[in-house]
Q: What sequence folds into this?
């Protein structure tokens, strides 16, 4: 009888641990204000094509010429990006350091944090690099392949 209770308690503990991990992933809705977006010109400083989500680092100049260092999270994981034709080589070429882009972000809910969720990236030639449609696999057309 005592061994059955011990087994049941271990099973419950294991299920709680597994469920906690599942609920911990992801905080996009709680981290970013998707009801707001802003667009700015920026210069790419680094792009990391990594799990769980690629990260884009870029500099933004204000009207006085002061530089702010920003980062943007790209919502789909690398496997989802590959499915829409946006593999590592393509993304690293399109977002190489020094590339000037126009980026649209949903800002962080943390005040004055220079972090956002990437909604759209346009290159200096006005071509869509990555957009919300492409960032939502299964919703509309992907960004054009080059």
A:
């Amino acid at each position: 009888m005592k061994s059955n209770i011990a087994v049941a308690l271990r099973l419950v503990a294991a299920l709680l641990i597994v469920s906690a991990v599942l609920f911990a992933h992801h905080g996009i809705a709680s981290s970013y204000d998707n009801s707001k977006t802003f667009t700015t010109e920026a210069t790419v400083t680094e792009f990391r094509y990594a799990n769980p989500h690629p990260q884009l680092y870029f500099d933004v100049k204000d009207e006085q010429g002061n530089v702010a260092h920003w980062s943007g999270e790209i919502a789909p994981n690398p496997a989802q990006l590959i499915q829409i034709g946006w593999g590592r080589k393509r993304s690293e070429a399109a977002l190489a350091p020094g590339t000037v882009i126009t980026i649209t972000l949903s800002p962080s809910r943390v005040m004055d944090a220079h972090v956002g969720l990437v909604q759209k990236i346009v290159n200096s030639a006005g071509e869509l690099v990555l957009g919300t449609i492409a960032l939502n696999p299964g919703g509309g057309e992907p960004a054009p392949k080059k």
